[in-house]
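for the recovery benchmark. tokens below, seq after
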């Protein structure tokens, strides 16, 4: 979370989830949410949250997946996230209309 005084101006959520890849179950971290208050955008706060997320993913020795709209792909690519194929990936609350991206996937 990022605060300015007592006001919450940004936050992110990484959730532990299970995924099915070709009928095999694996654990991963879902980058579920990254939010910056509209009045604090364009101040590099999203970048700070992404560096935090990437660090947490690396420390956990796990990989992470996120779902995003086309307009957000380039933002995540700046932080070494890669677009992945949607086929054969199933997890709870997956939105098949969104793009999938991964980080730290080996």
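predicted aa per position
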């Amino acid at each position: 979370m990022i605060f300015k005084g007592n006001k919450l101006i940004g936050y992110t959520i990484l959730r532990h989830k299970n995924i099915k890849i070709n009928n095999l179950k694996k654990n991963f971290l879902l980058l579920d949410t990254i939010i910056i208050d509209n009045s604090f955008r364009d101040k590099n706060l999203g970048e700070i949250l992404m560096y935090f997320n990437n660090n947490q993913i690396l420390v956990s020795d796990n990989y992470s997946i996120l779902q995003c709209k086309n307009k957000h792909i380039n933002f995540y690519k700046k932080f070494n996230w890669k677009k992945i194929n949607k086929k054969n990936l199933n997890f709870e609350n997956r939105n098949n209309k969104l793009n999938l991206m991964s980080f730290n996937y080996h």
